[in-house]
């Protein structure tokens, strides 16, 4: 099974700042990498798929990049509603695997 | 916008069977892969398995011996049965749709059901 390692585990930033979250795969997943946002008591929400494609209805401040084993989710200017937990997920090999998450908290 | 509504008990006794159902509205259940994913503090988000109207079913290997996922197209529902549950199966269970043409990419989620395994 592929292992996805997210860093940092917790990221403390202020509204208006730029957030950079990382996801590293134990072997190449090509660009079959997605990012999800989860708020307390809610289901995850798809943000980015195929490494850099933005899902329907997702604001333009969210962007993804990377290929192979190293991926980045960038939030260009944090809004109050962006503070949540973010997960990466690969579908290159079966079964689909999620990372352990990065908690983005208000500084 | 598709809606997924989950139903089933929130408490299951050890060694009994966990059963959940997901009702799909405003969409055809025949066109997608339908998944069950669970989330626990210890294991994070874990894919359990999926089903397609074509009859194709796939499970996570470590759960395969205890899990059955089925589809009822006449009711626009799909279901999860997990046998011989233990405390390790305590989790929030989600029913989830895969994006059309992108199996393993999860674009619509149910509200989640907390299932606690306890006597």
Blueprint (SSEs and pairs):
The complex is a heterodimer of chains A (107) and B (119).
Chain A (H helix, E strand, L loop, with lengths): L3 E4 L2 E4 L5 E7 L7 E6 L6 E5 L3 E2 L7 E6 L2 E6 L9 E6 L6 E2 L3 E5 L1
Parallel strand pairs in A: 2-11
Antiparallel strand pairs in A: 1-3, 3-8, 4-5, 4-9, 5-6, 7-8, 9-10, 9-11
Chain B lengths: L2 E5 L3 E2 L5 E8 L7 E8 L3 E9 L4 E3 L7 E6 L4 E6 L8 E9 L2 E8 L3 E5 L2
Provide a brief overview of the structure.
Chain A is an all-beta fold. Chain A has strands at 4-7, 10-13, 19-25, 33-38, 45-49, 53-54, 62-67, 70-75, 85-90, 97-98, 102-106.
**How would you describe the shape of chain A?**
globular
Mean pLDDT of chain B: 94
Label the structural class of chain A: mainly beta
Strand content of chain A: over 45%
Distance between the termini of chain A: 35 Å
**Main beta-sheet annotation of chain A:** 7 strands, mixed
Query: Structural class of the helix and strand makeup of chain B?
Result: mainly beta
- Series of secondary-structure elements of chain B, N-terminal to C-terminal: EEEEEEEEEEE
Number of extended strands of chain B: 11
* Major sheet description of chain B: 7 strands, mixed
Figure out the total of helices of chain A: 0
Shape by Cα distribution of chain B: globular
The quaternary structure here is: heterodimer
Strand content of chain B: over 45%
Low-confidence stretches of chain A: none
């Amino acid at each position: 099974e592929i292992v996805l390692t997210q860093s940092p585990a917790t990221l403390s930033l202020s509204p208006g700042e730029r957030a950079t979250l990382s996801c590293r795969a134990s072997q190449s997943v090509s660009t079959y990498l997605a990012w999800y946002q989860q708020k307390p008591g809610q289901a995850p929400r798809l943000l980015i798929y195929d490494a850099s494609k933005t899902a329907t209805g997702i604001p333009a401040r969210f962007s993804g990049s990377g290929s192979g084993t190293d991926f980045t989710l960038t939030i260009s200017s944090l809004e109050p509603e962006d503070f949540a937990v973010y997960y990466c997920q690969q579908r290159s090999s079966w079964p689909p695997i999620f990372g352990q998450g990065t908690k983005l908290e208000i500084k | 916008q598709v809606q997924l509504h989950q139903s089933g008990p929130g408490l299951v006794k050890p060694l009994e069977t966990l059963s959940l159902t997901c009702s799909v509205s405003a969409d055809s259940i025949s066109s997608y892969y339908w998944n069950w994913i669970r989330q626990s503090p210890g294991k994070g988000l874990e894919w359990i398995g999926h089903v397609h109207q074509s009859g194709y079913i796939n499970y996570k290997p470590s759960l395969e011996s205890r899990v059955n996922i089925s589809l009822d197209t006449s009711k626009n529902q799909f279901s999860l049965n997990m046998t011989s549950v233990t405390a390790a199966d305590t989790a929030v269970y989600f029913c989830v749709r895969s994006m059309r043409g992108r199996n393993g990419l999860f674009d619509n989620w149910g509200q989640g059901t907390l299932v606690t395994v306890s006597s």
